[in-house]
Amino acid sequence: MLYKDYGKTGKKISVIGFGGMRFEKSGDKYDFDKCAQIVRKANELGVNYFDTAPFYCDDQSEEIMGYSLKDMPGEFYVSTKSSELDGSKLRANLERSLKRLGLQKINFFHIWCIMSMDDYKKRMSKGGAYETALRAKEEGLIEHLVFSTHCNGDEIEQIVQEGCFEGITLGYNILNFPYRQKGLKAAYEHGLGVATMNPLSGGLIPQKADYFDFIRGTDDQSVVEAALRFNGSHKEITTVLAGMGSIEQVIENTRVGYKIKEFSEEKLSEIENRLSASMDALCTGCRYCEKCPQEIEISKHMIAYNQKILGDVHKGLDWLKWHWEMTTETASKCIDCGYCESKCTQHLPITQRLKEISSW
Ligand code: SF4
Ligand code: SF4
Fold it and tell me: How many CA atoms lie within 13 A of 354 on its CB side?
């Protein structure tokens, strides 16, 4: 496994990190022993960065992770997050995370999901999230204070220039790279460690493996391998967070960490020529937009819309009808309240897409 410096923290982190958002249920609940086998297998194969958060996997990911990491023999570092603006709420989140994870300190604690500069300012305000997290760091409850963001490149540049964080987690993958490089470069140039989330574009790359076959190099056994290798081979990226829900996925993902090789210029331009700006606007299925007052299941509609972006509107319709037993009429219930768009990590024009879907 290749290990890289996480910014200036002195930590050497495995190029493949464990994303704790894809544990799968056995029946209607999570089998903690089964999940622990997956986590421990990843550690055995060289992974030392384990990322979790409240809310992942029906809010059980931190507890699963805590159960799995207990007495795990290999070296490991844990990352978790809080999206609270208010200092006292963040403190409560941190204490709950420590308890669930069974740890004395969090190695990488994220000020989570900064959506805009306005949002950033709120996190940094007096008595707010950042100040409280910094105090917890002084107390030894946090080792490194980092952030995750869905801001654009210019905004990321402004944030990292202020020098308040040691690392960043951001969405970057082989389908959106031409549109996301600025923020990545700014973070690296300011000495931050960089974790990338969403390397498989919300699972779309393996789901549409035939469509995305053009990303594969001659040595890549699968599109998943190509996509992980792509992120891992960037000098700017320390670790690639891959969600792992089975031992097979652990084996497939970690294998990449042993044979990281850069993409040639020719291959990169071939890929770039096949991409369009609309691929930067694919829904990742993260579900941050849910809780619509009209009870529209937004992520399902946007995932169906992904099919249209990839050139197959009929398939989008099929997903809605046959996969989820929905009609396009549901989309017309939107009252334009704006809630979902304010939460969307991809800044998607959800209401406009719903209007379009309602006329399919
Ligand atoms: S804008 Fe429409 S879809 Fe979005 S939360 Fe409001 S009602 Fe629901
Ligand atoms: S619409 Fe946006 S917030 Fe909702 S699932 Fe898709 S990317 Fe995530």
Answer: 23
DSSP for 121-138 reads: HHHHSTTBHHHHHHHHHH
Q: Are 232 and 257 in contact (CB under 8 A)?
A: yes
Q: What is the pTM of this model?
A: 0.90
Measure the CA–CA gap between 357 and 346, rounded to whole angstroms.
19
Predicted confidence (pLDDT) per residue in 262-312, tens digit? 999 999 999 999 988 888 889 998 899 999 999 999 999 999 999 999 888
State residue 291's pLDDT score. Answer: 92
CA distance 304 to 53: 27
Segments of the chain scoring below 70 in pLDDT: none
The domain spans of the chain are 3-274, 283-358
Amino acid at 258: Y
- 165 close to ligand 2 (CB < 6 Angstrom): no
Other beta carbons less than 10 A from residue 125's beta carbon: 14
Alpha helices in 70-193 (DSSP H): 87-101, 117-124, 129-138, 153-161, 177-189
Q: Could you identify the atom of ligand 2 that is nearest to the CA of residue 343?
A: 3
Q: Span 3-274: which CATH code?
A: 3.20.20.100
Nearest CA to ligand 2 atom 7: 283
* Closest to 308 (Cα-Cα) out of 263, 278, 338: 278
- Contact predicate 1/46, CB 8 Å: yes
254 lines ligand 2 (CB under 6 A): no
Helix%, strand%, coil% for the chain, nearest 5: 45, 15, 40
- Cα gap 173→99, rounded to integer Å: 33
- List the one residue out of 143, 132, 51 whose CA is nearest residue 90: 132
Q: Which residues pair with 16 in a beta bridge?
A: 240
